[in-house]
Amino acid sequence: MTIHHGGCHCGAVRFEVEAPARVTVSECNCSICAMTGFLHLIVPASRFRLLAGADGLTSYTFGTGVAKHLFCRHCGIKSFYVPRSNPDGYSVNLRCLDQGTIEHADIEPFDGRNWEQGAARLAHLSQDGG
After folding, report:
1. Is the separation of the CB atoms in 108 and 24 below 8 Å?
2. Please, what sign has the CA dihedral across residues 44, 50, 55, 57?
3. Is the pTM of this model over 0.85?
4. Is the N or the C terminus of the chain less surrounded, counting Cβ atoms within 10 Å?
5. Which has more pLDDT, 61 or 72?
6. Does the domain at residues 2-126 carry the CATH identifier 1.20.140.10?
7. Across the chain, where does the E strand assignment appear?
8. CA-to-CA distance for 122 and 130, rounded, in angstroms?
């Protein structure tokens, strides 16, 4: 495991996440992910730490309201959020991680437009063994 650092565009929000140097991320085609280009690195809550900017986050929910989309209120970037598929973890946008600690990323498509049919294959990712 490696500690990866990341944050939003303006730097007000900073976090660290513990994950392998070689990762597999999901590219979702749901309405919000397709528009934002989010690449999901889902981790257990115990492997995510918000270092700065909690007071600069604003949230957005839609649909079922389970997912908590968190945006920097200054620059508008969603660098991480609590996903519907893993409400006990975090999804970090691979594109918001600082350069240098990710050695390789495999990108797997995820059919978020048909979320109910595929969500079970993501559920294990927020478990400590995930």
Report:
1. yes
2. negative
3. yes
4. N
5. 72
6. no
7. 2-7, 14-19, 22-28, 39-44, 48-52, 57-60, 68-72, 80-82, 89-93, 104-110
8. 9
